[in-house]
Amino acid sequence: MLMQTHEARLAALREELKRRGVDGFIIPISDEHMSEYVGDYAQRLRWLTGFGGSAGFAAVTLTHAAIFVDGRYTVQVREQVDGSLFDYKSVPADTLAGWLAQVCESGATIAYDPWLHTWAWVEALEKQVEPKGITMVPADSNPLDAVWSDRPAPSAALAIVHDETQAGRSSADKRAAVADWLVSHGHDAVVIPALDSVAWLLNIRGADVPHTPVALSYVVAHKDGSAELFIVPEKVTPELTRHLGNAVTVRDRAGFETALASDYAGKSVVLDPDFAVVGIAQALRSGGATFAFKQDPTILAKAIKNPVEQAGHRDAQARDGAAVAKFLRWLEIEAPGGGVDELAAAARLQAFREEDAGLSDLSFDTISAAAGHAALPHYKVDEDSNIPIPPGSIYLVDSGGQYPGGTTDITRTVWIGPGEPSAEMKDRFTRVLKGHIQIDRAVFPQGTVGGQLDVLARQYLWEAGVDYAHGTGHGVGSFLGVHEGPQRIAKPSGGQAGTGQELFAGMILSNEPGYYKPGAFGIRIENLVLTEEREIAGQEGRYLGFETLTFVPIDRKLIDKALLTASEIAWVDAYHAKVREVLSPRLSGDDLAWLERETQPL
User: Are residues 396 and 517 in the same domain?
Assistant: First the structure.
């Protein structure tokens, strides 16, 4: 029987919890690989509550229910989730442990799916609720799945070969490096559940997760350089089998848990604390293996792009930049009449990208944000929230594409005429631009971490008594995840993962300071940059800087030239000269004329 209402779904889940003899259950947005973006089959929170954001979780007891989101989704959660069914809770001020202590009696048992949570998450929660007499118990199977009768099947897309001409390095070479790491650290094997790590290590890609070209699978890599790939057999083609070679054994994904429990007795196995779920650790322990939590050795290696990946990324950026430039010209013509809405703009941008046969997918859902919506950094337009782009306003578009050579991510903020932007808009835009330039021009010694650079982007906003609440930069994959660790540029406080990661030549990062005035407008300028070695006369030690990768005009109508120094004006002019150089061969006619106009010196 199909349950159409969220009230009926919640009631059915509660009946299933009663049948199992537990008092509550936790529902995250997660899959068994701890992916940032998950397939429809794993969208349990959306099915139960209606919430469509990318971060959050719910907790359901027999008598109470709550949904927990952070400040990005305060508005969205109230639009999408029925407040008569779920209490709205704001993270980090409200905690799951605190809520459970309020609504549960001593002796309560709260179930969780051990394949959707990490060991550290469960351990921390257990310590917090134990004094209240609450016990956390792993469920044998997910109780929500038992009542979700029309749950979609996982994607059946084939896994494909990512050729060495694009990867720049053979899978055998990568596996040998992992083997060396295992030997030097005294371990026998490492379990790799992160989908982009599997894809990188074996030079394979897929289409199982929206906007991220990965295949649902696990790898166990061994200290002799061999590996086992656990994947649905129907996804494996003869071409993939030939590519993997004799050193990679293909096994049925359905047998993964059994294999962990039977094949590693007496072995020392590495698990990444951020990606290895409780179910993996439990299976290894039940079979007599020991495990150690250490960062998966592919994570850092994947982040440092080799010369072939760097070249592929430059090509992807040029292709993508031409599409975005065409879109911005179209927007300049069409939007001032008031006939373009957020969804139509996003669709038109996608159409321009799709003119390039090399496009594989978007790299994330386009953030197409007009007026006050632009003040929501992670706004996601849908049929309910969609508004026309008002003439005489700021419009922000954050978007990207997946190309076999690389993954793109760009934000442009533009003025939609007629009329002129306000002095406040130009002031804030120019301060964001000044911070963007400071990151772009940064030179720093080897050993510097991302958290040390963050203040460079914020200083001019701070001078005006304003700030922004997101990080300044995240890592980006090579035809993989648009958000990739371990590096990032963000405030070092607040437990931001990655801000303590040393930056190395070859790492790609976004450079995206912003400013957001609630209900009024938002500004973000985002390019991608490549960390590279720098030569300085008389230098002592090794120094690094950034090569700009993204080339699309920055809206000169929003720049207050009086706030820029001579060297900043020179940066803008040099940047726009490079935009002309990169994009001119890819544009023609009116598009080329527009580009030449928009890249004139300040």
Answer: yes
